[in-house]
Design a protein that fits this description.
153 residues, alpha+beta, globular
C-alpha cells in the first residue's frame, strides 16, 4: 500500500485534565489507546512519553486537545471509531466535552511511512473549515480516494 490515512480530531474539555469533571475521559485514555494500538489497520498515533497526546498544545486554549493517528485505510479507521469500544467513549463525550462550533476532525492521505506533524493537522482542520471537504482534508461523509501513483516512465 502506497498511502495511509492520517486523521486528527480535537476536543474542548469542560475542565482541566486534573478536574473531576473530566475524570471519566482521563480514565478512558489508556484503555482506548490500547484498543487503537491493537486494532486491525492501525499504524501510528501521536503520543508523548506518557503514552497519550494530552500534553501536546497546539491551540491557545489549553483545554483543546489534539489527537492524531495513521491507519492503513478509511475502513480500518471507521471500524475502530464506530465498531469497537471506542464508540462508548463517543457516546459519553457530552459529559466531559464542550460543544464545538467548528470542525473537530479531518482525514487526509500520507505516503506510507510518513508521519504527520501536529501543525499539519491544525492546518488540515482549518482547510476543511474554510473550503469544505477536498482531497486535502475530508470526512467520513465526504471521502476521497488516495492519490494516484504516477505511471513509471
Amino acid at each position: 500500500m502506497t498511502f495511509h490515512l492520517a486523521q486528527c480530531n480535537i476536543v474542548k474539555l469542560k475542565a482541566p485534565l486534573d478536574s473531576p469533571v473530566v475524570a471519566d475521559f482521563v480514565a478512558a485514555l489508556d484503555p482506548i489507546n490500547a484498543l487503537a494500538d491493537a486494532a486491525p489497520g492501525f499504524v501510528w498515533r501521536l503520543q508523548s512519553e506518557d503514552g497519550d497526546a494530552t500534553s501536546f498544545r497546539v491551540f491557545d486554549d489549553d483545554q483543546i486537545l489534539l489527537n492524531m493517528s495513521v491507519w492503513e485505510s478509511i475502513e480500518a479507521l471507521q471500524a475502530y471509531v464506530y465498531r469497537s469500544g471506542h464508540v462508548e467513549v463517543l457516546r459519553q463525550r457530552r459529559q466531559w466535552a464542550e460543544p464545538f462550533d467548528s470542525v473537530q476532525s479531518t482525514m487526509w492521505w500520507v505516503r506510507a511511512g510518513e508521519l504527520p506533524e501536529p501543525s499539519e493537522a491544525v492546518a488540515r482542520l482549518a482547510k476543511l473549515e474554510r473550503d469544505g471537504p477536498t482531497a486535502d482534508a475530508f470526512t467520513f461523509q465526504r471521502r476521497f480516494d488516495p492519490p494516484e501513483e504516477p505511471a513509471p516512465h
